[in-house]
Structures are given as C-alpha cells and as structure tokens.
C-alpha cells in the first residue's frame, strides 16, 4: 500500500528536477548572451565572442573580423549548445503534447550539432537555432509560456538562422544583415529569459 504513492511521485520528482535544470540552463544562456551583447557595446570589455556576435561583426565591419573566426572550434559555443540541449530536454514534457516527433527532434538537434561542429569547425551550430525555431512553434501549439514568448522565439530563431547563419554564408557582408542579426540577437536573449521563468514556474507548480 505504501509503495504506490512513492512510485507515483517518482516521475513528478524527476520532472521537477528536469524543470529546475532547464530553468538554470536557460538563465545561464540568457546571462551569456547578455554579456556578449554588453561586451559588443562596450568594446573595452574583453569577452570571447559567441558565434552570433561574430556573425554580427562580420557583417557590420568585415574588415575588422576575419571569416575564419567562424571556423574556430570554440569551447564557449560548445558549452552554449549543450546548455541549450538541456533546455530543450526540460521543455520536452510540454512540447510533446503538440507533436512528439518534432519535440524529440528539437531535443536531439543541439546534442547532434556538437560532434558535427567539432568535426567540421563550422557546421552544427545552426542546429541550436533550428531547435529554437521548432520548439517555439510547438510551444505555441502546446501552451508552453505566453503567446508573446512563443512568437518571440519563432521570430528570433528564424532571423538568426536564415538571415544570420545562412545569409552570411550566401551573401556578401551587409550592414542590413547586421541590423537583422542584432534584432534577432536581442529577441533571442529575451526569449531565453522567458523560457527560464516558465520552466521555473512549472517546477514550482509541480512542487505545490
């Protein structure tokens, strides 16, 4: 008789820990991307650029940044990808209600992108943006967070993926692309903050 409540509580306890881990990961990502933005605005601040800041620099002032900067296997970028995979895993219980297959894909993409990035030095990081795009669409359908948060994630991911990653590879450096990347970067940072709050709220709700 006493084993039934304990067995029932285990999945709930695991979900609390997943939500907490995802909330912390999303908060760390928010802080990392915010620091990258502040460092870009305060040129005197010596901080390693993540790949999105590098894309911005390549388009804003191509003479000051070499394209080879994107080919460096950065420990910072690998860490960001792994943290994002943790966020996707924490979001999975909510996203799967919208579409289980696409939810699994969103979780797998950041982790699959890491070995691809290490092997190629260039490819793989786009998997994070694609995962963000997919998860934001599923969040809108699965009622994860607010509608505003969902659309912010969709817009930020689309801008950074298509105009940032793909646009920089396909077109000559352009200040217009830099403007779009800057907008997408700010939206992406804000979206991560809303995801952190939503995962923490769900953890608190599960603990109640």
Walk me through what this model shows.
- By secondary structure, this protein is mainly α.
- It has one domain.
- 79% of the residues lie in helices and 0% in strands.
- Helix 2 runs antiparallel to helix 7.
- The longest helix is centred in the first third of the chain and has 39 residues.
- The N terminus is likely disordered.
What gap, in angstroms, lies between the N and C termini? 23 Å
| Number of domain units | 1
Oligomer: single chain
Query: What is the global morphology?
Result: elongated
Rounded to an integer in angstroms, the radius of gyration calculated over CA atoms is 18 Å
**Low-confidence spans:** 1-5
**What is the string of helix and strand elements?**
HHHHHHH
Counted beta strands: 0
How many helices in DSSP terms? Answer: 7
Largest sheet: none
Classify the beta-strand content into a percent band: under 5%
Structural class by SSE content = mainly alpha
Give the averaged pLDDT, no decimals: 89
Helix content: over 70%
List the helices and strands and how they pair.
Layout: H1 3-41, H2 51-60, H3 75-95, H4 100-120, H5 126-142, H6 147-170, H7 175-207
Provide keyphrases for this structure:
208 residues; mainly alpha; 7 helices; disordered N terminus
